[in-house]
Amino acid sequence: GEDVEQSLFLSVREGDSSVINCTYTDSSSTYLYWYKQEPGAGLQLLTYIFSNMDMKQDQRLTVLLNKKDKHLSLRIADTQTGDSAIYFCAGGDTGRRALTFGSGTRLQVQP
Amino acid sequence: SAVISQKPSRDICQRGTSLTIQCQVDSQVTMMFWYRQQPGQSLTLIATANQGSEATYESGFVIDKFPISRPNLTFSTLTVSNMSPEDSSIYLCSAIDRARETQYFGPGTRLLVL
Hints:
The complex is a heterodimer of chains A (111) and B (114).
Chain A: E1 4-6, E2 9-13, E3 18-24, E4 29-37, E5 43-50, E6 55-58, E7 61-66, E8 71-76, E9 85-93, E10 100-101, E11 105-110
Parallel strand pairs in A: 2-11
Antiparallel strand pairs in A: 1-3, 3-8, 4-5, 4-9, 6-7, 7-8, 9-10, 9-11
Chain B: E1 4-7, E2 10-13, E3 19-25, E4 29-37, E5 43-49, E6 56-57, E7 68-72, E8 75-80, E9 89-97, E10 103-105, E11 109-113
Parallel strand pairs in B: 2-11
Antiparallel strand pairs in B: 1-3, 3-8, 4-5, 4-9, 5-6, 7-8, 9-10, 9-11
């Protein structure tokens, strides 16, 4: 089955860019998502990318997909203290559609 | 985007009892799922809720412990049966929006079993 891996922790200063990385094993993953979870809250869908895309930009967020290396990244420009949260990468394929989640990356933004 | 609500938002239950969690979506969706997030952990899929038929369970999860219903396209329930403290988790419902083909999550139900 699918395996999704993320680094556990990232600390940046306010105003800097954050880059959160994710690797996955299943080349049939068609849908790749980034979710944000703040303390005590549910999952907020941040952005997603389909496997036929290399990049997607949405305001401060940029997603890069390297299908050859099965590597996905989320870049947050001008990181703010309100961006402090856990970020989950998740993947699913066209048939199954249920998602396999990474362990989550805790982003800490220092003022 | 689909808006998903869950009830209850949290509960504290006694060992041996059962709790039914409801999930309601405000628009047409194609698929619905139930996930569990144990304390400090990532999300694990429990099952796919199939409309009008038995749910499809993942390895390690069984119908007797987690019975699921989905009587129509926009509503599903998950029951956590004969609870033990190990069942203390956040239970999240998700759905795939028919229009955008993206997967949204409900706010979760925080369950503590004493």
